[in-house]
Amino acid sequence: MTDQNPQDDDIFLTGEIVVLRQPDIDRDVNNGHWHRWFNDPATTEYLVHGVFPVNRAQQAEIVAREIADPTSLLLVVLERKTSRHIGIVCLKSINFALRSAALSIVFGDRSVRGAALEAVALITGHGFDRLNLQRISGGQHTDHWRWMNALELIGYQLDGYHQHYGIRNGQKYDSASYAITAERFYRLQQQRGGTICGNNLDDLMQQKSRKNKTAILKQFLEDLYGS
Q1: Confidence band of 191 (pLDDT split at 50, 70, 90)
Q2: Which of 9, 65, 132, 157 is the most exposed place for a label (fewest CB within 10 A)?
């Protein structure tokens, strides 16, 4: 595959605006900018990363371990039009007994509207269609609630609230967890004519809620326990 031709046998999953494939360590890490994302304060603002620096060699080792891990499916996200490497998505902790996995996503380039949501939709669909999972979950900093609202568009829902999950910039912060079940995914996909993102991803994104439901969940728990 050349950087000018994303339509290649290397491509694993194809969407409207992004394509996903297995990482190529030489191309994506050694001759790419992957490691820079984890050194960038803006990219790691809502992540647990960014505590220690990482160089290309270290990033290559990390990626190699993920590729070799049978409980992990790591894919790079390319903008379909230009084949630019803009992010990564991963199903981690795949448990074939429980039929569950954890979602992880990092985007170093957030300039392509809808790319992150479509990438998650693609790997989620693969998790249910081919890995036969029944539940996929994830978590995020509560300040990132707008991303949660985007995930709701493809069937994810808030699943829990975690007080004082960590400390960043001297301040304690909370996190929220979310999840999607295969039953909910397939029901929504059927309602949309067989594709989870519908006929037009841009139209779907116009439906995103502007309500901070993470804050509503926090208030509900405080009222429930009188804290």
Answers
A1: very high
A2: 9
